[in-house]
Amino acid sequence: xxxxxxxxxxxxxxxxxxxxxxxxxxxxxxxxxxxxxxxxxxxxxxxxxxxxxxxxxxxxxxxxxxxxxxxxxxxxxxxxxxxxxxxxxxxxxxxxxxxxxxxxxxxxxxxxxxxxxxxxxxxxxxxxxxxxxxxxxxxxxxxxxxxxxxxxxxxxxxxxxxxxxxxxxxxxxxxxxxxxxxxxxxxxxxxxxxxxxxxxxxxxxxxxxxxxxxxxxxxxxxxxxxxxxxxxxxxxxxxxxxxxxxxxxxxxxxxxxxxxxxxxxxxxxxxxxxxxxxxxxxxxxxxxxxxxxxxxxxxxxxxxxxxxxxxxxxxxxxxxxxxxxxxxxxxxxxxxxxxxxxxxxxxxxxxxxxxxxxxxxxxxxxxxxxxxxxxxxxxxxxxxxxxxx
Length: 389
Description:
29% of the residues are buried. Helix 2 crosses helix 4 and helix 9 crosses helix 10 (172-188). 48% of the residues lie in helices and 13% in strands. The protein has a five-stranded mixed β-sheet. It has a two-stranded antiparallel sheet with strand order 1-2. Strands 3-4 form a two-stranded antiparallel sheet. By secondary structure, the chain is of the alpha+beta class.
């Protein structure tokens, strides 16, 4: 296999359930008919003054398409249980083309190849495992495992390094497109699960990843097994430092953090008479500047609802419409429920674990070190020969 062929190359990575559906639907149609449908749709992109709405295929397929284009689009939409929008099959087609899951038979009709048939008929089969390894999904599973429960922001940098070494992509925006589309793929397959904004491997995901570990593939290695407890120790040390800080210093640390997060005009309030508010700042929401008040609690006990009530009651005094409660500990269940009370202004809650996440993300109190692992190429290349030595 050529070196370039083994590199990650599909940015808009599709859910496998949708790919299987399209392989069944496109079987028997010609390449010309598929590309003709895509071209017809792309010719209807509209203008900034007349934007085309693609959200409801039940409407636009009948209104904008005719003949075989309408028939094919309707098959894609209706036989998928109205989950696959024919407007957004670019990534699916790219994956199928790259890995030759369809081929042209006599008469120019498309039909699944041996690999395509195996992919359709066997979840987690050889073809699926090959796609996962070559398109970085095994590496992503490993990153989630080594950081779980993890936020996207915590694995974004390592994922970017992986793409720099294993793809021709160089744009940070493309890195994020690759990351989010693959996370959606793994969620659809039940290999990872989401709790709020954090992701963890499921038992099925751990079992699946073990296949690659046993074969010595992917990012997981003895090095990563060593690295995980080091990261946990860093988090524990950072949280302990926060809990032992002088209360006033802690307030200024939070001010420094929200400055890094893009807030403006952040100020620490007077040490007395603040009404439960420790920091005030402005944040841009759309085209509007919004005043926010922040209260910090540096202690080890669970934060009760009365602290949230005190902050909520102080919003009007500062002309604020948003509030955030930050603690180095955790919040009680009643506090979490009160924060989402639809009858009152919502309050954002940041517990000790999330606070540590934010400090690490913005490199406050920690310094990140990049470690590159060498990866062998399929052949030796020299400047003189450009090929095998």
